Amino acid sequence: MHNANWDDLRYVLAVAETGSLSAAARQLGVNHATVLRHVHAFEAAHGGPVFDRTPQGYAVLADRARVIDAARDAASAMENVARLMAGSRTPFLGTVRISATDTLCTTILPQVAARIMAKSEGLRLEIRNSNAHDDFARMQADIAVRPSVRLSDDMTGSIAAHMAFAEYATPDAPDLWLGLSGHLSRAVPAEWMAAHVAHDETAASANSFVTLRDMAGEGVGHAILPCILGDADPRLTRLDGRFPGMTVPLWVASHADLADSPRIRMVASRLVRRIQAHDTALSGG
């Protein structure tokens, strides 16, 4: 790669990673104007914009996702060459960003991530705690770990385990439900609640299963929770009540445009293997 183009690409990658010109400038140790000049130079040389300029910052355009991932691979390759020249061998250098639900981020994912990194010198995992499903549209994740009946057409991945849901409450809880709001309104248990629970049967709602667990633990009402959360809480009892229980596939998935990246493919396969070791707890066994 021509040195000028490589230099421009470094700046483009920094903006993609940080989401703003000012944050990229701080990361690179330069000023705002320098970053902007290199981004404009790269876009001019390659026939069009890479970013959508929004009030919230710079978001990578969806059709430029592969450009950014190639930039990460190029940066990793350059670092790898330097290390190999110094006598070390690090085949999977670089950052992989993982988006997962708060349930997974507070239960199994810290251990899973630690064990993957322990076996992968030079690999850095960035964990994003999010119940949203649009991380890929905004280019804020490389891999998603989340329960879903099926993947969207632009995603590809593997089922690592199955996540069970059940009804939980304290012994003295009122006969009222805790509703699923926000992003959780798209979760599979929310479909059952919409069909079987009237609005006046709910005491409160939340957009986080971790928050719902704690509300149920305080005796506010009955909550539908992932069994890996509910079973571990000594305040709660799993009930065979109105909710029949259900199990949802737990996917490790990437956007189709990113799935062929060696680094992402390697991390995804290791995530699947490590998550499978927790299948009993995830499935409520």
Automatic annotation (TrEMBL):
Can the keyword Transcription regulation be found in this entry's annotation? Answer: yes
Q: Which GO terms describe its molecular function?
A: DNA binding; DNA-binding transcription factor activity
Against Gene3D superfamilies, the record matches this protein to: 3.40.190.290, Winged helix-like DNA-binding domain superfamily/Winged helix DNA-binding domain (1.10.10.10)
Q: Name one Pfam family in it.
A: HTH_1
Q: Which UniProt keywords apply?
A: DNA-binding, Transcription, Transcription regulation
The HTH lysR-type domain extends over: 1-61
The record's similarity note reads:
Belongs to the LysR transcriptional regulatory family.
Q: PANTHER family this protein is in?
A: TRANSCRIPTIONAL REGULATOR, TRANSCRIPTIONAL REGULATORY PROTEIN
Q: What is this protein called?
A: DNA-binding transcriptional regulator, LysR family
Organism annotation: Lutimaribacter saemankumensis
